[in-house]
UniProtKB/TrEMBL annotation:
<keyword id="KW-0479">Metal-binding</keyword>
<feature type="binding site">
    <location>
        <position position="124"/>
    </location>
    <ligand>
        <name>Fe cation</name>
    </ligand>
</feature>
<feature type="domain" description="Pirin N-terminal">
    <location>
        <begin position="41"/>
        <end position="141"/>
    </location>
</feature>
<dbReference type="InterPro" id="IPR012093">
    <property type="entry name" value="Pirin"/>
</dbReference>
<dbReference type="GO" id="GO:0046872">
    <property type="term" value="F:metal ion binding"/>
</dbReference>
<feature type="binding site">
    <location>
        <position position="80"/>
    </location>
    <ligand>
        <name>Fe cation</name>
    </ligand>
</feature>
<keyword id="KW-0408">Iron</keyword>
<feature type="binding site">
    <location>
        <position position="78"/>
    </location>
    <ligand>
        <name>Fe cation</name>
    </ligand>
</feature>
<feature type="binding site">
    <location>
        <position position="122"/>
    </location>
    <ligand>
        <name>Fe cation</name>
    </ligand>
</feature>
<dbReference type="Pfam" id="PF02678">
    <property type="entry name" value="Pirin"/>
</dbReference>
<comment type="similarity">
    <text>Belongs to the pirin family.</text>
</comment>
<dbReference type="Pfam" id="PF05726">
    <property type="entry name" value="Pirin_C"/>
</dbReference>
<dbReference type="InterPro" id="IPR011051">
    <property type="entry name" value="RmlC_Cupin_sf"/>
</dbReference>
<protein>
    <submittedName>
        <fullName>Pirin family protein</fullName>
    </submittedName>
</protein>
<dbReference type="InterPro" id="IPR003829">
    <property type="entry name" value="Pirin_N_dom"/>
</dbReference>
<dbReference type="InterPro" id="IPR008778">
    <property type="entry name" value="Pirin_C_dom"/>
</dbReference>
<feature type="domain" description="Pirin C-terminal">
    <location>
        <begin position="193"/>
        <end position="293"/>
    </location>
</feature>
């Protein structure tokens, strides 16, 4: 998914200096962003209070939206560098196309994982004949320096492993949870999991104390370590946790995102993740000149035009504002 802001703000991310080294309960409120003509998203990362959780650098939550009489998601071809995109649905379908030739319809609780590496372009759209509701999350994972110029590729995993306990089913999207590992390719120690809880469930989820974590509420009513987290909001949890208490007041679903704190400082602007202003400027110039990012074939429409870079220099400022 693209960042469609016409005047995107640069975000300086990474570095261990601002990692909370102990458990905390920091509730992050979303910022509403228009995505195309008919889709509105709630942006949780980067946030006014926090920019990253491990290597997770961008989180949008959208829906549930009734798109029965609408085109639904329509995101034209656009570029990425230096990151992975994670498409995750609870309802609906998204058709993915990219410049490596991938064409894949992604359905609920199937993993669409695109590694941009040195450069890729892609589009995302609701199929012409689509389900009534669209509900999901789009996430970016920053690539470490040694892998950020890797060859671009796309992975699709329809069957993902699960961890179960009474009243809880956890689908492991990326990384490892409680000894269970996703088939998705990762480049830093991290975890992403979709947790489905039945009403009345009280449980504890095992965690890695070296990771920092956040929990995004997708639906229902759930208390995370005693804090009520409503759909479309995220609770940042810090590091140093061996387990996480969860209590579902109703049937509920949340996403657990975590990882080893990202050591490198990086810059994120529009759809690019780099290390310097030169990285970002060169990527924008190449996209506008039709270089490096390839062509998305089959999409009915023109590719996105990159916004103008801000006049002020892009400077890293750490993990939090």
């Amino acid at each position: 998914m693209s960042n469609l802001d016409l005047a995107p703000e640069p975000s300086a991310c990474g570095g261990r200096g601002f990692v909370v080294a102990e458990p905390v309960r920091e509730l992050l409120s979303p910022r509403t962003v228009k995505l195309g003509e008919s889709t509105e998203v709630r942006r949780l990362l980067p946030n006014l209070g926090r920019r990253m959780i491990g290597a997770w650098a961008f989180v949008d939550h959208y829906g549930p939206d009734d798109i029965a009489d609408e085109p639904g998601m329509q995101v034209p071809p656009h570029p990425h560098i230096g990151l992975q995109t994670v498409s995750w649905l609870h309802e609906g379908e998204v058709l993915h196309r990219d410049s490596t030739g991938s064409l894949q319809t992604i359905r609920p609780r199937e993993l669409g994982l695109m590694t941009a590496g040195r450069a890729i372009s892609h589009s995302e759209e609701s199929p012409k004949r689509h389900a009534r509701y669209l509900h999901g999350a789009q996430l970016w994972v920053a690539l470490p320096d040694e892998h950020r110029h890797t060859e671009p590729h796309f992975e699709y995993h329809a069957d993902l492993p699960t961890v179960t306990a009474p009243g809880l089913t956890a689908t492991v999207i990326l990384g490892t949870l409680d000894g269970t590992t996703s088939p998705g390719t990762t480049y830093t120690p991290l975890v992403g999991a979709d947790l489905t809880l039945t009403e009345g469930t009280r449980t504890r989820l095992p965690l890695d104390p070296d990771f920092e974590y956040g929990v995004l509420s997708m639906s229902g009513s759930v208390h995370v370590d005693g804090v009520p987290v409503t759909p479309g909001s995220m609770l940042y949890l810090g590091c140093g946790r061996h387990s996480l208490p969860l209590h579902a007041d109703s049937d509920a679903s949340v996403m657990l995102l975590g990882g080893e704190p990202f050591a490198e400082e990086l810059l994120m602007w529009w759809n690019f993740v780099g290390r310097t202003q030169e990285d970002i400027s060169r990527a924008r110039e190449d996209w506008m000149k039709g270089l490096r990012f390839g062509e998305v074939k089959g999409y009915d429409g023109a590719p996105l035009t990159a916004p103008q870079l801000p006049a002020a220099p892009l400077k890293p400022r750490g993990r939090v504002r």
